[in-house]
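Appendix B. Chain record.
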Amino acid sequence: MAQDLRRRTTTGTTTVTMEPDDREQNIILRSGGQLSASSLLSASPTQQGRALKLHVPVLYTLLPSFIQNFIRNVSFLAFLGPTWSERLLVLCGSYVYKFVNESSKAPKGSPLPVDVVNVSLVQESTELDGVILPVGYKAIFQVSTLRKKQYYAVPTKEEAMIWITSLQDARQEAIRRSMGHAANMPYPKSWSYFDTLAVGLVKSKDRIRQRLEEQNMREMELSSLTDGGPIGRGYFG
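Structure tokens predicted for this chain:
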């Protein structure tokens, strides 16, 4: 975990090391450790199951289509293009979690709050041009927030629709709870406990992400200065 939270870069002859403070690390380690896959699975989650998550490298999205086609058709360049990774998805309480497998001690990435997600069935030919479904998988559904989109492949369209319906229902229930309209609806104490841990984990990871982005900007500005001038800001510099 410490390696995931540490970033070391070199600008000229100066080495800059950035680490989240001990308090942030402790929050992530403590919250993530208690949000293990086995703990969530034992809490009777709304929905859980395996799916393949699509990863598309940023560089790949910037390439012209003919180069993308070349990468997809040359086997030893496949790592440069879209790839699928198996994940265990768990919808529990107000969050959906991603794990590598049932033995994972902490979620992969930040839990997604269901009250802000949109979910839909993907038409492979129009939305994911050039992405090939792995053998044995017939459907893709999309989970999106304002900041990102995630694509998951499952063996059947029926399974995709179960996930879509479950996430849509969970979103409506979360919104009703936030508005105080669900007082008579039972909500397990274990789910409330996991929701609290997820809130802390998401906030801590967001703060770390923000600090890394600020550090990247400072390094870009320093690099620009050493290369001969300040970095331009907008059309007028």
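Further analysis of this model is presented in Appendix C.
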